[in-house]
Amino acid sequence: MPEPECPELECSLPETDLLSDWLRRSAAATPDAAAIVEDDRVTTFRELFEQSRSLAARFVEHGVKRQDRIALVMPKTTEAIISIFASLLAGAIYVPIHPQWPKERVEAALADCGARLVIEGDGSPPRIIDSRINDPRISDPRITDRATGGSIPSQAATVTPIATVVDGNSLPRANAADPAVILFTSGSTGQPKGVVLSHRAVSAFVKWSAREFKIGATDRIACPSPLSFDLSTFDIFNMALRGATCVLVPGHIAWMPRFLVQFLREARITCWYSVPSILAGMLEEGRMAQREYPGLRVILFAGEVFHSTNVARLQAAVPQAVCANLYGPTETNVVTWCGVPRGFDGSQPLPIGLPCPYAKVTVDAASGELLAGGESLMSGYWNRPEDTQRAFVSLEGERYYRTGDRVSRAADGNYLFAGRLDRQVKRRGFRIELGEIETALRGLKDILEAAAVAVDDGKGDGEMGTVVTIVAFVRPRAVGAVSLIEAKAHCARALPLYMVPDRIVFLDAMPKGNRGKIDYQTLGKIAEALDHTALNQAAPNHAESKHAEPKLH
Q: Hey, where are the domains in the chain?
C-alpha cells in the first residue's frame, strides 16, 4: 500500500507545543478541508477555528482567565470538539466528564477541579440531520457559571474571520507548561482523581505519533474513545496538528462490533486507535476478517492487554496495516510501544516494547515495578498534593511515575507486562480501583464490610485476559437488611457503568487472615468458583464465626 502524502513530515511539524496553535495553523493552511465528520455533518478547519474562537471570546468576555477550568459534560459531538479548542484558545483547561456518569460522581469531579464554567450537551441518541446542518446554533450547548448559576450564550454576536486573528490574537495565551486538560480516573479512596496534563505533555505524544505513523492531511482518523479517555488526544490533536480529518464514532455504536466494522468501511477510515476489547469484539462478533479495508493503514491499541492470538488474527485480517501496541497509564500517556512484527503468530505474548523517544523508563530492582518519566509525564493530580507526592519517585534528580505495573525484560530488550502490584484492574480499557467499588458499597448504611475482586476469563494464550468479571462481597448488618436489588441500584447511582460489579455476593462473615485483614486470596477463589452465567445466588447459610468458611447468601 502506498505511503500517505506526507512529504518532509519532520520539517513540517510546528515548533510550538500549544495545542490551540495547531488548529490555527491548519485553519490558515487548509481552511476548506474537512476537520470533523459527525454522521453526515462535515465541519471544515475554517468553521472549526472560527466557531472555537467565537466561543473562546464569550468565555473571556464572561471573565474566564488563564488556567480556569471549563468542564465539558457532553457526548462526543462536533460541539464538544469546538468547546475543547475554545477552552484552549481562552488559555483555560478543558475537563471532559462523561455525561453518563452518575450525578454524584459528576458533581464530585466538578467540585474537585473547581470548574468555572460547565458546558452541557444533549446526551440523547443522534437525531435526523436536516438542511440546517451548517448552522452552528443547531444544537448549541448549555453553558453555566458555577459561581453564579447564570448562563452565557455559546456564540458571540459576530464570528471573526481567520484572516484577522491568525497572526494577532487578543485572547489570553497559555504557556506550553500550562495545564491543557484534566482527566479523571478511578481513585482507591472512592473519589476520582484528576490527572493534569500540560500542553507540552500532550504534544510530546502527539508529535511522536504523527512522525512514527506518518499522519498526513489525507488521513481519516477514527475517534472511537470518549473524550474523557486519554486515547482521544491522539484523534483530536493529530487532526489539528496534521490537517487530517477526525471522524467521530457515534456513541451509540461504541460497543456494537458489527456496526463498528461497517463504520470502518463506510467512513473510509485510515487510522484507528482503541482499546483491545473493542478490536476483539470486531474480530469475533463483527467478523472483521470477512471484509476488506483498502484504506486502513494504521491500527493502534492501548489501555489493556490484548491476547496474542487476537493480535495475530487482527494482523491477518488487515495485512496491509501497521499494527502497534502502545503502553502507558493516563499519568504518563504512551511511554513504550511495540510494532507487531510481520508474520506474528500469537504463540508468544506481545511486548509493551521499548521507550518512546520523549520517555524515560526504568525498573525498580526490588519489586519489578516499571517507573516512567519524560516529557509526557503528568504535572500531578489536581488539588491532591499528597497523592501526587506518593505517585512519584526521584531518581538522579528526575521525576518518575510509579506505574504499579510489574515488568520483565526480554532478551531483545523489550519490556513485557507481568501484572499489577496493587488491586487495580482494567475493563474495556477503563482503569478501575477495586477499593473505589468497596467504598461505594460501604456507603449503603446496612453494609458493614465490602470487598471486591476481579476474575479474569483465562481464555487465550495464558496472558491476562481482556474479559474481566468483577465480584463484590458484602457483609450486611443482618440477614435481609439489604437486598440484592438495593445493592445493585446503589452501585448504579454511585459508580460509572463500567465499574458496577457483575455479581454481588452476600456473606455472613468475611474471610480474614491472622491479622484480621480481609483475605482477598480466599475471596478470589470463591469468585472463580461461581457460575458467572447465573443471575442470582443461592439462599443464605450462616457462618458460625468470622474465621469459618464463609457462606453465601
A: 431-529
